[in-house]
Design goal:
This protein has 175 residues and is α+β, with helices and mostly antiparallel strands. The two termini are 12 Å apart. The longest helix has 26 residues. Helix 1 crosses helix 7 and helix 4 crosses helix 7. A hairpin with a 5-residue loop joins strand 2 and strand 3. The protein contains 7 helices and 5 strands; from the N terminus they run αααββββααβαα.
């Protein structure tokens, strides 16, 4: 009985969380979302920016689509004064990565290789293949414990919650 309730609740959370997030994000002004994303990415990639590891994006636009929550944006590098990530709406991009939040969390945490998700058709990469490979290699080189503590902790907690819910949702199906 308890396993059935846990499985049912976990399944409901896994299916309704993206819908609620999508609705919540829809009411937030685009400018505010862009500013928050810009600050988070610059904070998370501060080391890579200062060491020039992201220079390959300068003059190009890398798109990111989080399909299940309806979030999309494009990033590039501005070299004015010091390198920093700039974010804009997703218009024309040189390469675009598309996936659902669980898969993107797995990539961000280093728990899943983008190549395996690509071949499972859970990650879509469209556009400039060479730029996409450079971006993928950069992602793979970032260790979760090297990120600023608040970002690393947030990713870790989100991933733990996701894995726990997925495990609970699968319990009755296996038993």
């Amino acid at each position: 009985m308890l396993n059935g309730l846990q499985q049912s609740l976990s399944t409901k959370i896994l299916t309704s969380a993206p819908v609620m997030t999508r609705h919540s994000l829809a009411i937030i002004p685009k400018r505010f979302k862009r500013e928050v994303i810009t600050k988070l990415i610059n904070l998370a990639l501060e080391k890579q920016l200062s060491e020039g590891e992201m220079d390959f994006i300068a003059g190009k636009w890398l798109g990111i689509k989080v399909l299940d929550i309806g979030l999309d944006f494009a990033i590039s590098i501005s070299q004015v004064i010091q390198p920093k990530v700039v974010v804009r709406e997703l218009n024309q991009t040189d390469v675009t990565f598309s996936g659902n939040m669980p898969e993107l969390l797995l990539i961000a945490s280093g728990k899943e290789d983008p190549d395996s998700l690509f071949f499972q058709r859970k990650l879509l990469i469209e556009g400039d293949t060479e730029l996409g490979l450079e971006a993928k290699n950069l992602l793979l080189s970032i260790e979760l414990d090297t990120l600023p503590k608040p970002i690393g902790v947030a990713i870790g907690k989100l991933l733990f919650s996701l894995e726990t819910l997925q495990a609970k949702a699968a319990i009755v199906k296996i038993a």
